[in-house]
Amino acid sequence: LRSILVGLGGRGVNGMLREDGFEITAASEVMAILCLSRDLNDLKNRLGRIVAGYDQLKRPVFAAELGAAGAMAALLKNAIHPNLVQSVEGTPVLVHGGPFANIAHGCNTLTATRLALKLGEIVVTEAGFGSDLGAEKFFDIKCRAGNLTPAAAVLVVTRRAYALHGIENVAKHVENIRQFGVEPLISINKFLGDPDSELLEIQKRCRKLGAASFITDYREQGGNGGLELAEAVWSAAQAPPAFRTLYDTAMPLEDKIRTIACAIYGAAGVEYTREGMRDLKRLSDLGFGELPVCMAKTPASLSDDPKASGRPTGFTLTVSGARVSSGAGFVVVYTGDVMTMPGLPKDPAFRRIDVDADGRISGLF
Questions:
Q1: How confident is the model at residue 14 (pLDDT cuts 50, 70, 90)?
Q2: Residue-range domains of the chain with CATH
Q3: pLDDT tens by residue, 243-275
Q4: Residue 155 in 3-state DSSP?
Q5: What is the C-alpha to C-alpha distance for residues 199 and 196, in angstroms, rounded to an integer?
Q6: Phi, psi at 153, each rounded to 5°
Q7: How far from 82 is each of 92, 108, 209, 331, CA to CA, in Å?
Q8: Residue 215's CB: how many other CB atoms inside 10 A?
Q9: Would you list the DSSP string of 86-117?
Q10: Angle between helices 29-36 and 69-76 (to 10 degrees)
Q11: According to the model, what pLDDT value does residue 13 have?
Q12: What is d(CA 307, CA 131) in angstroms, rounded to the nearest whole number?
């Protein structure tokens, strides 16, 4: 499904022969639009700005021109409303939206965040994966689109990730967050079986980076396991904000890509495949060059090589393609061999799911 041919069997019945493909819902433009829309009217307008295709003169054809915006908005009229749920300790939680941070912008909906800001004194929201993906996109895409000013940032470190990537990787994530004018706090999450001595050593090394670091034990103690961190976050949020985005959207697409690659990933430079360069030139010529960029990159490394652990340096980021999500308001840039339609593992979980004669389901997580 990642790469298909549409229109086989004759143009008269099946239309123009063309290449196409499917993407996972979390990476779709519709998901991004849902997450970045301010209200139903904005949602409808953004849906209408989706590029549905190109005409014979290579000009974009928008969904609104096909008369499809209203129907799409009708399908999503309830989906735009945030879902209010409750944590096990009675805290209100707004669960809404689900774009992946490696192949999409990785943040919950703007409507949920704006609603939470009206209802609470402080709002905690997650940006997926690390500072190179979720955090950069939260700052440069979501905060820009919603005119948000973050008051504090928490970088989550685990013993398992630390063992794989080391303190230099943590240092780079700390540096990345500071580039946005936000001072990070570090939460060292404790899991069952983590030796206290190792966690204390990680905390010691994190503090040498100049970042306030706390060992948190939510899994066993719930909210009480993170009170010290919570108090530090509250204190940090009282400071005057110094938030800034990484780049000016008026910069050419190639300059924005280079800024992210060098400043956030630590690359020495950027190279473009023939298709990648062609895509960027076409999008710039069509007037999409001043949109923010949403990088699609492996979450397993700061680079575009998933096998490069720690803090890679001296590497060249490869841009393999780009497409516009004009309704969402950004240009998606594909790096390395990233896939936007992941597949199942060799041993998928569905093999352990069953239902007995009485209707009892087993094998769920």
A1: confident
A2: 83-237 (3.40.50.300), 253-335 (3.10.410.10)
A3: 999 999 999 999 999 999 999 999 999 999 999
A4: strand
A5: 5
A6: -140, 140
A7: 12, 10, 38, 26
A8: 21
A9: E-TTS-EEEE-----TTTS--B--HHHHHHHH
A10: 70
A11: 84
A12: 18
Q: How far apart are CA 237 and CA 17, in angstroms?
A: 55
The identity of residue 303, as a single letter, is S
Distances (CA, A) of 89 to 125, 192, 349: 17, 20, 30
Torsions phi, psi for 25 (to 5 deg): -50, -40
- Reported as a pLDDT band with limits 50, 70 and 90, residue 331 is very high
* Residue 206 amino acid letter: C
Q: pLDDT-derived band of residue 15, with 50, 70 and 90 as boundaries?
A: confident
d(CA 51, CA 62): 5
For residue 44, what are the CA distances in angstroms to 79, 114, 158, 327?
Answer: 13, 19, 41, 10
Beta partners for residue 6, in sequence order: 18
Q: What are phi and psi of 143, to 5 degrees?
A: -65, -35
Distance CA 153, CA 158 (A): 16
Count of CA atoms in the C-beta half-sphere (13 A) of 25:
4
> Tokens at residue 92, please?
């209100």
Residue type, 335: T
Distance CA 49, CA 87 (A): 37
pLDDT one-digit tens code per residue, 37-70: 999 999 999 999 999 999 989 999 999 999 999 9
Question: What whole-number distance in Å separates Cα of residue 327 and Cα of residue 364?
Answer: 37
Model confidence over 288-299: pLDDT tens digits? 999 999 999 999
Give the global pTM: 0.92
Convert the pLDDT of each residue in 152-198 to its tens digit.
Answer: 999 999 999 999 999 999 999 999 999 999 999 999 999 999 999 99
b/e burial code for range 230-240 (CB count within 10 A of at least 16 → b)? bebbeebeeee
Place of tokens 């703007």: 110
Cα distances from 250 to residues 6, 95, 148, 157, 292, in angstroms, run 37, 33, 20, 35, 9
165 touches 130 (CB < 8 A): no
Q: What is the pLDDT of residues 202-225, one digit of tens each?
A: 999 999 999 999 999 999 999 999
